[in-house]
Design goal:
Elements (H helix, E strand, L loop, with lengths): L2 H10 L17 H16 L7 H8 L1 H32 L3 H5 L11 H9 L1 H33 L5 H16 L8 H24 L16 H12 L2 H9 L3 H4 L2 H27 L15 H33 L5 H21 L3 H28 L6 H30 L10
Helix pairs in contact: 1-11, 2-13, 3-4, 3-10, 3-13, 4-10, 4-11, 4-13, 4-16, 6-7, 6-16, 7-8, 7-14, 7-15, 7-16, 8-14, 8-15, 9-13, 9-14, 10-16, 10-17, 14-15, 16-17
Length: about 425
């Protein structure tokens, strides 16, 4: 697989999004490649964020949550396909390729999301993509900084939340100073296995508690729709990595990529809905913002929490790496060691400032989903498609683009307002009895 593609996969798809297997087999075993693609899609989309879904269902209700999650997934798949279509439209017409290639003379090129934005809206399009990607990556790091102390303190009571955060700080600063992440590859792989192990354990304890299902689970209410909408957008935003994922497959498999991808995402929707509903129904109004906090005290639950925390500690710099590389490039600080190091330290400190303002895992998920993920996953794909295909869109295609754009804007605005209100005014549904 080309180095540029490797870097794109590595930069844009870590933790919540980090494929570990690629399929440039040059036309080898297609069945094996399809299985590998399913595995890549699963690893790319399923991350620690799913552990906040039971709490989201607690806030929104079972029926409303399932419908919204499925609807957002459908629109997300359609939006990601728009980005792929834009890529091939650009390549077929050689639109602005000389500018994108910066005169290196290469003809065989796979575009990135920022390149699509450059063609569609010029520097503004690229800027919107890159800023949104950076902010979302930092947001994911903030989520881990909340996740780890909560879970470790529950497993090892000798620690306290604030003290553990301070202990994590120098470790993350040192890891963020690394110029290569090769030494951390094993920890990214551990994160995948630890997360899968956590899902299995959580499901097991969910089913153990099914005989205690409450009769009075929260009724569906539109008041909680914006919060759940933000969570859903967080879970299914994939436009930032779809081109890298599509590029990772062999040429003979690309013609079936959309069909395979749609099937895989459909299975993931079922997994998300099942996981969220089971977790909520098992613990009812006591469901925590991170479902692992609901696990009883014991050897296996503690192992799950500690393994996840250990893996996410080393995944933090993987998530921050694309931000560091982009800022080094933009501010030309890579040649100035002190300037680059200072920027890396400031990025880590920024995550601490953010979690001091927003210490709630699910609320942070909702805010990142409502802002960066909505822009990347819905608004920009539709806008780019409208611009790049402006002279050849059918009426149906134009309606789809406008619908995704409008839904993205409206959903993003109401979800952002809801998240901000919860941050600074308080959660209107925190007490189920109210």
């Amino acid at each position: 697989m080309p180095t540029a593609v490797c870097l794109q996969l590595h930069y844009l798809t870590s933790l919540k999004k980090h494929p570990t297997v690629v399929m440039h087999d040059g036309g080898g075993n297609q069945e094996s490649s399809v299985i590998s693609l399913y595995g890549n899609i699963f690893i790319t989309f399923v991350g620690a964020g799913i552990l906040g879904l039971p709490y989201a269902f607690k806030e929104a209700g079972i029926i409303e949550g399932a419908v919204v999650l499925a609807f957002v997934a459908l629109l997300s798949i359609k939006a990601m396909f728009l980005v792929i279509d834009c890529k091939y439209k650009i390549l077929s017409q050689q639109l602005d390729l000389e500018k994108l290639l910066e005169g290196d003379g290469k003809q065989d090129v796979d575009l990135e999301y920022g390149d699509v934005g450059q063609v569609a809206l010029g520097n503004t399009g690229r800027w919107l993509v890159e800023v949104s990607l950076c902010l979302s990556q930092v947001g994911f790091c903030c989520a881990y900084a909340i996740f780890i102390p909560h879970n470790v303190v529950l497993s090892i009571p000798a620690f306290n939340y604030s003290g553990l955060l301070l202990l994590l700080l120098p470790g993350w600063i040192m890891l963020n100073l690394l110029r290569t992440l090769k030494s951390l590859a094993i920890f990214s792989l551990m994160a995948d296995f630890a997360t899968l192990f956590a899902y299995v354990v959580v499901f097991w304890f969910d089913f153990e508690h099914f005989d205690n299902i409450e009769k009075g689970l929260r009724e569906e209410s539109l008041v909680n729709l914006p919060f759940f909408l933000g969570i859903s957008m967080y879970c299914f935003e994939g436009a930032g990595m779809i081109l890298a994922l599509e590029t990772s497959v062999s040429q003979n498999l690309r013609k079936n990529f959309k069909k395979i991808f749609a099937k895989a995402l459909s299975l993931l929707v079922l997994l998300y809905i099942t996981f969220g509903i089971c977790g909520y129904m098992s613990f009812g109004h006591t469901t925590e913002q991170i479902i692992t906090l609901n696990l009883p005290d014991g050897i296996i639950p503690n192992i799950v929490r500690l393994c996840l925390s250990f893996s996410l500690f080393f995944t933090y710099p993987v998530m921050m790496f694309p931000v560091v590389k982009l800022l080094d490039k933009k501010f030309r600080s890579s040649d100035n060691l002190h300037k680059s190091n200072l920027m890396r330290v400031c990025l880590v400190l920024t995550t601490y400032v953010v979690i001091a303002v927003v210490p709630n895992f699910s609320l942070l998920m909702a805010f990142v989903g409502a802002t960066c993920c909505t822009l990347l996953g819905f608004i920009l794909p539709a806008l780019f498609h409208l611009k790049i295909f402006k002279d050849s869109l059918t009426q149906r295609e134009k309606i789809w683009d406008i619908a995704i754009l409008v839904i993205g804007v409206i959903g993003g605005v109401i979800s952002t307002i809801d998240a901000l209100q919860r941050m600074f005014v308080g959660d209107p549904v925190e007490n189920p009895a109210s």
